[in-house]
Amino acid sequence: VKSITSEIKKTREMLDSNNPDVSKSLILNIQGKICEI
Q1: How many angstroms separate the CA atoms of 3 and 15, rounded?
Q2: How many Å is the maximal CA-CA distance in the chain?
Q3: Rounded to 5 degrees, what angle do the CA atoms 6, 19, 17 make?
Q4: What Rg value do the Cα atoms of the chain yield, rounded?
Q5: How far is residue 25 from each of residues 17, 22, 34, measured CA to CA in Å?
Q6: pTM of the full predicted structure?
Q7: How far apart are CA 12 and CA 26, in angstroms?
């Protein structure tokens, strides 16, 4: 789980610099998938 969290952090930082709206929806989508596991 820690590796997934660090991946999300990296992805979030990368996307935040590009498009905050897209990153928010993507993070919510990823978090939803993690909850399903």
Answers
A1: 18
A2: 29
A3: 60
A4: 10
A5: 15, 5, 14
A6: 0.37
A7: 8
